[in-house]
From TrEMBL:
It comes from the Bacteria. This is Uncharacterized protein. It comes from Chryseolinea lacunae.
Amino acid sequence: MAGLSFDVLRAGRKYRLINFGERNEFVIEKVLVDGDFKVKDLLTLETYKLKDLLAYGKGKDYQLEEI
């Protein structure tokens, strides 16, 4: 189950991404012009682009869901 698509993500909402055994929980701070998102990690409070999490592709366990 892949969960949500990138085109339904909204700023200010919290999401969980599971990919290659890693679990990331983040809030979307800003929708960028190039179709990417500026996100803030809920555990470390680090900010980064969402595409950085998918730089190595999508694993068999890929799932994106709203929390």
